[in-house]
From TrEMBL:
The keyword DNA-binding applies. The lineage of its organism: Bacteria, Bacillati, Actinomycetota, Actinomycetes, Micromonosporales. Keywords: DNA-binding, TPR repeat. InterPro entries: Cro/C1-type_HTH, Lambda_DNA-bd_dom_sf, TPR_rpt, TransReg_Diox_bact_type. One of its GO terms (molecular function) is DNA binding. It holds the Pfam family HTH_31. SMART domains: HTH_XRE. It comes from the Bacteria. TPR repeats lie at residues 320-353. It comes from Actinoplanes digitatis. Residues 11-66 form the HTH cro/C1-type domain. This is Transcriptional regulator with XRE-family HTH domain.
């Protein structure tokens, strides 16, 4: 059974449980009754996140419940990652334990940006929970802004680690811990950093409108009196832009990305916030690519991505996101070989993240269907098997 059929079955089940007819649900989602019927039968793919979000809103069901995301890690990956989830939960609920020296804590926190950009979720699962626990212990003992700043960075890493693993409740808990620590720093830019993380946690859980409102409000309130404030405001604008695109407001998303781009041009060198959020001109370009894919203009997406495809940035995690969006664009253009190669490049950049991605799995499944599966070629079949799609046919 394909992913399209599974998602269609869930849509039908939730629609009926809500007592909605096809006409009513289609009207609430802003689509035609025949189109919704084809979606429910698995005859059409839900490759548009904006459409998926409209259906989610119409049925009052979180997106993860419709897509059954994330795919569960299999084999060794599951064994290596689960302890990290358990330890992160414990670090958030009870950070007590043997203390560590300030030098050891500071050294670990200083290297978190490189670890989080390395596309090594297993390594992250081994390091982040301990740092989250130790930084909280240190902040409670010292009570200094610097100590709470380290909690902010450790909690930020936990937000994204948990979000990427589909542990959305834990991602939100970590974001709340980050916000509370940011308030102790009495620094507007750090509060903006926390708002950026909270918005991402909300997006993962499907609360898109709240995420966009929070990120946009913080971007507007953020003073740009120093470089950290500039990076915080730009980062919030980017998450507001990507969320707007997922909600179907493509023009609004483009305006927000353009504003973020102007701020990125003013940022002369890295800041703590920019290091962790990757706020820079190249990341603005990546958001522009994603928005054009979401807006149904794949040619514009490919054109926008060209400079980064020719000269990739040294951030494996972010490059994997770019290659996924490029793959989606090529799929929309019906350029199958380029789409497969883009997804394979995404996988090489971040193997586990890409293999667990519901978006990639749906696209690969669609490519298989178009290729009549057995004629899909070794590269596509291998990718499909690693994504857990081949066995669903």
């Amino acid at each position: 059974m394909s992913d399209d059929v599974r998602i269609g079955q869930r849509i039908r089940r939730y629609r009926r449980s809500r007592g909605l007819s096809l006409d009513q649900a289609a009207g609430l989602a802003g689509i035609s009754k025949p189109y919704l019927s084809r979606l429910e039968r698995g005859e059409r793919s839900l490759n548009s996140r904006a459409l998926l979000n409209r259906i989610s809103s119409a049925l009052q069901v979180p997106v993860p419940d419709l897509t059954d995301q994330p795919y569960v890690p299999r084999g060794r990956a599951a064994a290596d990652l689960r302890p990290g989830v358990t330890e992160t939960r414990l670090a958030l609920l009870d950070p007590s334990g043997p203390p560590r020296s300030e030098a050891e804590i500071a050294s670990g926190v200083d290297g978190l940006d490189l670890l989080m950009n390395s596309s090594d979720p297993v390594g992250q699962a081994r390091v982040v929970p301990d740092l989250l626990r130790w930084t909280q212990q240190s902040a409670l003992m010292l009570g200094t802004p610097a100590a709470y700043q380290r909690v902010v960075v450790a909690a930020y890493a936990a937000v994204f680690m948990m979000r990427n693993l589909g542990e959305y409740d834990l991602a939100w808990m970590a974001a709340e811990r980050m916000r509370a620590a940011a308030e102790h720093t009495v620094d507007p830019a750090t509060l903006g950093f926390a708002a950026y993380a909270q918005a991402h946690a909300l997006v993962g859980a499907g609360a898109l409108r709240r995420a966009r409102a929070a990120a946009y409000a913080m971007a507007q309130a953020m003073p740009v009196t120093d470089r950290e404030g500039l990076a915080a405001r730009g980062s919030c604008l980017l998450v507001a832009a990507s969320t707007s695109a997922k909600l179907g407001d493509i023009d609004g998303a483009r305006e927000l990305v353009a504003e973020a781009g102007r701020l990125a041009e003013r940022l002369d060198g890295p800041t703590l916030i920019a290091r962790h959020t990757s706020f820079a001109t190249w990341n603005v370009i990546m958001h522009r690519v994603a928005i054009e894919v979401e807006g149904g203009d794949p040619a514009a997406a490919v054109d926008a991505a060209y400079p980064l495809c020719q000269r990739p940035v040294p951030n494996r995690e972010r490059m994997s996101y770019l290659w996924v969006d490029v793959g989606r664009a090529f799929e929309q253009l019906d350029r199958r070989p380029e789409a497969i190669e883009a997804f394979r490049r995404a996988e090489r950049a971040a193997p586990l993240r890409v293999r667990l991605s519901p978006v990639v799995s749906r696209c690969v499944s669609e490519l298989l269907d178009k290729s009549h599966r057995r004629a899909g070629g070794a590269d596509l079949r291998g990718l499909a098997e690693r994504c857990g799609v081949l066995g669903h046919s």
